[in-house]
């Protein structure tokens, strides 16, 4: 596996690959890789001739600088994992390489980017669109792979791809969970042992709410999930929304859409660590 640090070197490498008729898969990451990321990389390797994995902790998508500072940085072990998964390239540029000048572009795709994470983390999705659009322009991939744990992010990126006319396929990949149900996340490494013991209660409540929802309204299901999680000492729901799985607009009735998803963010512990997850109530994409 090659480790490439500059945009020009990446473009030269991929230009040669295209001349040879090879297909290109891109897996954008912020590093601190785990089995969830590995599943994306293996999927790309199985479906493309060349797989590029970006490792870039993007500052423009953090509206909380302390969150950025705490985010784990594990480049050496990341590259080892990628090599074992069969990746062709780890693209690990510096901040100056990606942003030689401030990126002043504004992306706006309501309601997908203005609700939930968009409402609680102003500017977050604008930063996501800035970096992902740059990566798409550098790599010009045939396919780009994203984990469904970041369900809202995929919806926003799809809108951006349509808006900017990128000729690629977005490939959403299922959430990878630990044995106890906790969605794998780079942030999990920041949890204490006590916090790791309670964090699985998030998905437990979501999973139980699926059967509960069969005989209860959307509003009752919302209250069920929030009450169940808030009853666990050390957990506090920041938001829980039940939405149309495509537009991310709130639904009031189970009949409002053929694809309905519940998206949640929970504060875990005293620090606290923000953990996100989601559950599908109706339909599948």
Give a short summary of the structure:
This protein is of the alpha/beta class and 285 residues long. It has helices at 7-19, 35-47, 65-70, 75-85, 95-98, 117-120, 124-139, 151-164, 193-198, 201-213, 218-230; strands at residues 2-4, 24-29, 50-55, 89-91, 143-147, 169-173, 235-244, 260-268, 273-282.
Can you walk me through this structure?
- This protein is an alpha/beta fold.
- The chain folds into two domains: 2-173, HUPs (Rossmann fold); 186-280, Pantoate--beta-alanine Ligase, Chain: A,domain 2 (2-Layer Sandwich).
- 40% of the residues lie in helices and 20% in strands.
- The protein has eleven helices and nine strands.
- The protein has helices at residues 7-19, 35-47, 65-70, 75-85, 95-98, 117-120, 124-139, 151-164, 193-198, 201-213, 218-230, and strands at 2-4, 24-29, 50-55, 89-91, 143-147, 169-173, 235-244, 260-268, 273-282.
- Strands 1-4-3-2-5-6 form a six-stranded parallel β-sheet, sandwiched between helices.
- A hairpin with a 4-residue loop joins strand 8 (260-268) and strand 9.
- Helix 10 runs antiparallel to helix 11 (218-230).
- The radius of gyration is 19 Å and the shape is globular.
- It starts with a strand and ends with a strand.
- The model has no long low-confidence stretch (mean pLDDT 97).
- Helix and strand succession? EHEHEHHEHHHEHEHHHEEE
* Whole-number tally of structural domains: 2
CATH architecture of the largest domain: 3-Layer(aba) Sandwich
Broad structural category: alpha/beta
Shape: globular
Largest sheet: 6 strands, parallel
User: Helix share of residues?
Assistant: 25-40%
Looking at this structure, what is the CATH superfamily of the largest domain? HUPs
Major beta sheet, strand line-up: 1-4-3-2-5-6
- CA-atom Rg in angstroms: 19 Å
